[in-house]
């Protein structure tokens, strides 16, 4: 999970500040505003292609193959229903779950601002 979060944050930095850094670098080398942004978008598209190619060449873990074999006998609808029932039953098994759900439902019903006349 830590690798996933680190990669997500690096991707966010590269896609925001990195793009601006590239464009400013292209402009400092003499490209006009539009050409610098065009070159920046081309480089950023190259970064996206790296991710796409990596995803296409990645192998599926053996656990996923075993899990798919187990679930192959079930229909998609049954798997969705099992997932929903499992999620709701897990939430409702916690202490004060009904109180938290009541708060969430009633929070949207109450007015957000009180008008003083």
Low-confidence stretches: none
Q: What average pLDDT do the residues reach?
A: 85
Helix percent reads: over 70%
Q: Largest sheet, if any? A: none
What is the H-and-E element order?
A: HHHHH
State the end-to-end CA separation.
Answer: 53 Å
Into which percentage range does the β-strand content fall?
under 5%
- Shape, principal axes of CA atoms: flat
Number of helices: 5
State Rg.
25 Å
| Class based on secondary structure composition and strand pairing | mainly alpha
Total count of strands = 0
Concise structural overview:
The protein has five helices and no strands. With 117 residues, it is mainly alpha-helical.
Task: Write a structural description.
With about 120 residues, this protein is mostly helical. It has helices at about 1-30, 35-55, 60-70, 75-90, 95-110. The longest helix is centred in the first third of the chain and has 27 residues, at about 1-30. The chain is flat, with a radius of gyration of 25 Å. It starts with a helix and ends in an 8-residue tail after the last helix. About 5% of the residues are buried.
